[in-house]
Amino acid sequence: METIKIKKINVVIEDLDTFFDKSKKEFKKLQEGKLKKSIDILSLSEDEYRGLFSKKRLDIIKALRYKKFISIYELAKQLNRSYKNVYDDVNLLLELGVIEKAEDKKTHKDNYYVEFDRISVEIPIFS
């Protein structure tokens, strides 16, 4: 039996004032080297959450899962999307730790991949 790898993302949906206050504090800690970049908890508004996991971004994640080590150019071609839009989406997903990249030793170009089968998102319904 094959083990299923799951990427767990905790999402906190909150108002913009709270989000900006937390973001300022976390950014300051990050600059001071007291906080490591992490995707353990994402603080997002409801609209941002819907945008983050849009159908097109989920298509990118799925494509990377089934075809490991693919370039942005190949990915854009496979998904029939513009290079720039795929580039922007890939960089956002990469920054958030949803996807990963590695350098191809032969071509020295970046290739992107995911190493999980499912994404588990927990959304608290209390405030």
Short description:
The protein has five helices and five strands. With 127 residues, the chain is an alpha/beta fold. Helix 4 crosses helix 5.
In which order are the strands of the major sheet placed?
2-1-5
Shape: globular
Number of domain units = 1
Beta-strand content estimate: 15-25%
Q: What is the rounded Rg?
A: 16 Å
| CATH fourth-tier homologous superfamily | Winged helix-like DNA-binding domain superfamily/Winged helix DNA-binding domain
Separation of termini? 40 Å
Describe the SSE topology:
Blueprint: E1 6-13, H1 16-31, E2 41-44, H2 46-52, H3 55-66, H4 72-79, H5 83-95, E3 100-103, E4 110-113, E5 118-122
Parallel strand pairs: 1-2, 1-5
Antiparallel strand pairs: 3-4
Helix pairs in contact: 4-5
What report would you give on this structure?
With 127 residues, this protein is of the alpha/beta class. It has one domain: Winged helix-like DNA-binding domain superfamily/Winged helix DNA-binding domain (Arc Repressor Mutant, subunit A), CATH 1.10.10. The protein has five helices and five strands; from the N terminus they run βαβααααβββ. β1 (6-13), α1 (16-31) and β2 (41-44) form a beta-alpha-beta unit. It is globular. It starts with 5 loop residues before the first strand and ends in a 5-residue tail after the last strand.
Key features?
127 residues; alpha/beta; Arc Repressor Mutant, subunit A; 5 helices; 5 strands
